[in-house]
Amino acid sequence: MRKVLSFLVAVILFCFVSQGLAQESFLIKVSAFTPEEIGILSSSGIKAYAKTADFYLAEATSQNLDYLKSSGISYEILDNEPEYSLYFFVYAKPGENISKYLTQIKEKAIVLEAKGERAIIKGHPRRIEELTSFGLELRLIKKKPLPLKPETELPFVSRGKVLAYDPLIAEIIQKVTTSELAGWDSSLSGEHPVTIGGNPDTLLTRYTFTAKCDRAAQYIKEQFESFGLTARYDTFTIPEVLPYYVMDIVSRPSGDNAWLGCIYSGVWKTTDAGNHWNNISGTSIYELWALSAPAPETLYGVGNYGVVIKSVDRGETWTQLSSPTSQYLRGVYFENGQSGWITGYAGSIYYTNNGGQSWTNQSTGVYNLYEITFVNDSTGWVVGQNGRILKTVNRGTNWSTQTSGTTGIIFGVDFATPNKGWVCGQNGYLRYTTDAGTNWVSQTSGTIQALYMVSAPDSLHSWVAGLGGVVLQTSNAGTNWVFQNPGNPVGSFYEIYFLDTLQGWVTGYSEIVHTTDGGQNWVEQTGNLYPRVNKYNVVAIKPGQTQPGKECLITAHYDDYSENPTNYAPGADDNGSGTAAVLTAAHILKDYVFDYTLKFVGFAGEEQGLLGSQAYAQKAQQRGDTIIGVYNFDMIAWEGNGVNIIELHAGTGASSQALADITIGVINDYTLPLIPQKITSGATDRSDHASFWAYGFPAILGIEDFEEFNPYYHTTNDRISAFDMPYFTDFSKAGIASLAILAQPIPQFKYGDANGDGKVTVSDAVYLINYLFKGGPAPVPLDSGDANCDGQVTVADVVYIINYLFKGGPVPGC
Length: 814
Known about the structure:
Number of helices: 14
Shape: elongated
Mean pLDDT: 92
Strand content: 25-35%
Radius of gyration: 32 Å
Number of strands: 46
Low-confidence stretches: 1-23, 157-162
Structural class: alpha+beta
């Protein structure tokens, strides 16, 4: 199709894509967590988009599924339309079953699965967002493939001893006080003023989309720095609206004025070549696939459910026209403001000569049709399912079939001249004609990805785009095709559109990129589509002494929510409590020395779908960080029935379960009055630990009992006055001690220095004799009296010291 019809026609048309791969692409659940199983998943070619304790949620083709089946990996198909669907996890309140809300959910979305507290749904995001009015929580399942790799193995280095009761850990536990925890939580939840940046302030809310959230980040960072720790912001961006599935773009010949058509956010317009885009109010209800711009003022759009819309004021306002069909429409071509065609499923082709007031049926059979283009006032092509290439030479009165050489889906067609053009489709299908389609010659694309659109501004230059962010270009009529690099696409490309041999766009799953030099360089314009705001994770670091490259994290999200979040959201339990534990851990552990590096992290954006932790974990994986384990604490101060249950959500990973075992050991060894429940299968994925699971890092969530959950959750009554302070303190003790054990504390004493004076002399032997035989004080720590490092203090240590001092024996120590 000619994207710029002529210098007399002020605009253009464009179009499309298809749902054709729906027949062989699926959304699946697959449970595979051993290293061998994950290796099979990785080699299968599936794209994993989410990971829970029990399964991966992934997109797979028929070939992928055959491979899994032959390898003994079982899976469950949830949906057969993943290519153009948006999926969400929707959660009931902790302790509730999602079945309670299924009637409301089904009014807004399609339910693919509902089990326990969670459902997997798909649909239009604007409608799905309305589910939050029922107290439900949402998490978008982003279509960004996750790394498929097993969890990092937990290296337990015991320094030559069995991990058991350790006076050093007991000392750390004793330093965790109720008063300190309460002080941090009161400051974070607005109970009293605080000083931030040298000025007084009161944190009445920490809702992510407020300035107070950023002030809270600054407050936390300044506290870390006051402890003498190095602290920094880990910045990430949050879009307020995402125009998922940017399916088409049309432009005036200059490229300054252009329009986007999206499935889930309607129409967007730019007047400066895409430097800024504005969403057109009222259009987000339309699920659009294709646009056409045949005249300076007039535009058309088509989409799902037979929708046809029209604008006569340069795309500022749109009106829905009476449609000739309820079938999904995929292509639109108007030669002027009045005459044009629309195409779609079930062989739909309709023509109008009165601006869409009435339509003439030109349908051709039952196969789904996609792109349509004309090269003059009589000659045009339509492509579609089952290798369909249809041509007309009489404005669609008759359509004849051309030989395509495939039974697969052909998605795109464009002609540079009346005789020279390309078609593209599934499995890298690419063909070229120089005789108006009488013969189509196969060209080597160099990819097996589905190619969705072709754009040919002249007979030598052409571009093709498709799945996996593929962009191909030829400058010699397809004799050679070369891959271009449009950046780092999140998903797939559905449209490529060149005004000439230099200026063009590629649009896709959630992005748009622009070039002015023929694709040698591309500029990402997605950030111009909608407002973005910077938000801040806060990270403090205590480097390890012997193995600083290995990291142990204690984390909590500091943002919060309520029924009035922009004005008042104290969030004392959710999650001032977890953040207070992180601050307390930093304050105490700064004074100790560890083998591994400690990181104390506060996340923003948790309430909007784990945004801060997802950004952090992704960057950690990209950097190659070696994260030994993550202790994430989220709501640890409410105890409704006095039983003192704490839940440790570890999932099915062996290393994550080992982290929970450390905490259980702390509770038992140091007689903390808590009842730990380790949850493996069925562990929740609704807090920040799940972001680390997704990238292969061991992590657990520590949280209060789901069965007796805080009734003030996400309300303005979530205040510290409702806390069970002893429970809060003991929970924090267990978590901080677990982190200390994981990081391998290094005793700050000399073996044999029983009296603690910093040197080993005969007085230490006397000190041990008094302790062993005369009831004298014990060495502090006790290990300092263990001169021979056999794990106990006995008379043998006295002999060891004497041999060292007077007979040239070995130096005390391990």
